[in-house]
């Protein structure tokens, strides 16, 4: 599954449901890869932001975290504000 800041459309209270759904769509060994914002953004409407420390506990419940690091090739307006994820559903 490719993630391109779709996560940021979900209110933080809905994020565990998002992770559960992504895990349910993947077979063992399947991957969720893509980009998340690493920026506070908004509290009252999308896009909802977050930080690496916020994301790790959600994803670690259902995935092996292979990569959760700052993107090195973001477009200029997003430079320093994105994380690359590579998550794998355990076999």
The average pLDDT score comes to: 95
**Widest sheet: strand ordering:** 1-2-6-5
Task: Assess the beta-strand content as a share of residues.
Answer: 25-35%
Q: What profile does the largest beta sheet have?
A: 4 strands, mixed
Report how far apart the termini are: 16 Å
Write a compact overview of the structure shown.
The chain has 91 residues and is of the alpha+beta class.
Quickly list its features.
2 helices; two-stranded antiparallel ribbon; alpha+beta; 91 residues; single chain
Topology diagram in text:
Layout: E1 2-4, H1 15-25, E2 31-37, E3 39-41, E4 48-50, H2 52-60, E5 64-70, E6 82-88
Parallel strand pairs: 1-2
Antiparallel strand pairs: 2-6, 3-4, 5-6
Walk me through what this model shows.
With 91 residues, the chain is α+β, with helices and mostly antiparallel strands. 22% of the residues lie in helices and 33% in strands. The chain has helices at residues 15-25, 52-60; strands spanning 2-4, 31-37, 39-41, 48-50, 64-70, 82-88. The strands form 2 sheets. Strands 1-2-6-5 form a 4-stranded mixed β-sheet, covered by helices on one side. A two-stranded antiparallel ribbon has the order 3-4. β1, α1 (15-25) and β2 (31-37) form a beta-alpha-beta unit. The radius of gyration is 13 Å and the shape is globular.
């Amino acid at each position: 599954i490719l993630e391109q800041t779709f996560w940021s459309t979900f209110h933080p209270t809905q994020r565990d449901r998002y992770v559960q759904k992504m895990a349910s769509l993947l077979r063992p060994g399947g991957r969720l890869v893509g980009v998340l914002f690493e920026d506070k953004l908004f509290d009252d409407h999308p896009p909802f932001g977050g930080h690496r420390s916020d994301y790790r506990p959600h994803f670690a419940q259902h995935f092996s975290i292979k990569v959760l690091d700052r993107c090195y090739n973001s477009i200029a307006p997003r430079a320093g504000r994105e994380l690359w994820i590579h998550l794998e559903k355990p076999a």
